[in-house]
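quick one, 248 residues, struct below
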Amino acid sequence: MPATPAWPPKSAPRLFVPGPLAEGAGVALDGPQAHYLGKVMRTGTGDAVILCDDLTGEWLATVEAVGKRDLGLRVERQLRRREAVPDFWLCPALLKKDRFDLVLEKATELGVAAIRPVLTRRCVADKLNAERARAIVTEAAEQCARTALPALAEPVRLDALLRDWPEGRTLFFADENGGEPAPRAFTAHPGPAALLVGPEGGFDDTERTAIRAHPAAVPIALGPRILRGETASIAALGLWMALCGDWV
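---
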């Protein structure tokens, strides 16, 4: 006899929607999400959709009605509770739009708990489109099957970040001038932590001095080569997850 197909199928679309979700709840979608399900994914009545609410976790829903511009679903059952995310923040200096888009996407896929953009003297960009950034983060979370979205903060100036840094959280500083090898530093400082990465032109001397003087800062080296800001963020985050996060 042929095997019974898995339900829901692995190909079922995934979407984050406002919550909280609950068994038996109705969900009405319109706009881009309805267009995506109805026109792009060709979802029809009775098809499965995976919904996440960033509060309770992941739920199986089925399509009840498909309109021209809207779509109705019914929540069937919970598949997974909201995941426990390792307590690691990424504090990247703003980069040019396409490069910072990459940082947002890959940091989400790698499992970071929060993204706190930073403004420094050598930043080429000086603002962040919050709606666009949130869309990138949400789409990345949907693609990689996260059930928890990273907290996305408004950009802050470096001096404000340092001034308001929370007690008890290590601040790993990716310094192109060198520091403790990252693998050694990461394993030597367990617990809540964050990674600070500079812009295209790096930190200037005044900024570097201020960071190194901060009691929470631990300067680290990411190998013998000088990395772009987006490369440093992605590489260091992957390394931390492998040594101290949820890849272990």
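The first helix runs from residue 31 to 40.
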